[in-house]
Amino acid sequence: MSFLELKDVSKSYGTGAAEVQALCAVNLSVAQGSLVAIMGPSGSGKSTLLTIAGSLEEPTTGEVLIDGRALSSMSRNDKARLRRRTVGYVFQDFNLLAGLTAVENVALPLELDGVASRHATRTAGALLADLGLGGRGGHYPDELSGGERQRVAIARAIVGDRSLLLADEPSGALDSLNGEAVMRLILRACRSGVTAVVVTHDAQLASWADRVVFIRDGRIVDQTVPPPTPESLLEDLPARGR
Could you read off the pLDDT of 221-234 as tens digits, one per residue? Predict the structure, then answer.
């Protein structure tokens, strides 16, 4: 069952001779609980695909559905509620709140949903510990390295009961060891039912995904085939006794 669908999605900026086509007739279906990696050269439309998938931008044409519900049918308030409760984002520039500590940044989405502060802080601290930041929760973003800030951003994106994770180069500021730890955490979230779409330039990290989609000049040009299910293999066997 698809949790995220993009149907003939196109996105253009500007008009006339200055028009730029960022996406062109993109069709993408992501099954619930799966991890899909998006790869392609800079400027190919990868980040635009993510922002449209998460309702931060609207497509010029086409439709986006999350859990079977069309984003075009939602009010502005509905979309805001969707982004707060269902979708977790990891941006290239972190987007952490400078006036909050690491643990407060991670706990904030829980508190906005009515979770008691003490419980939210405890949950956030445990998640930071999973990412090797157990001793850094009381530090502010400008007291953390780029890699540490990235891990805080990832923890904030997956905390709570988010169903869809959209990550733009989540390992871009990390060394190989921490990059693998991040992908392992994302994969663990998927195994518990979270659907994830991750933009990456790192082929080794993309190999963790269930499927890799390649995009160029705003178009999907290729993708790996998901591994066959046991049921599909049985369907290919010749019937006996015929």
Answer: 988 876 555 555 45
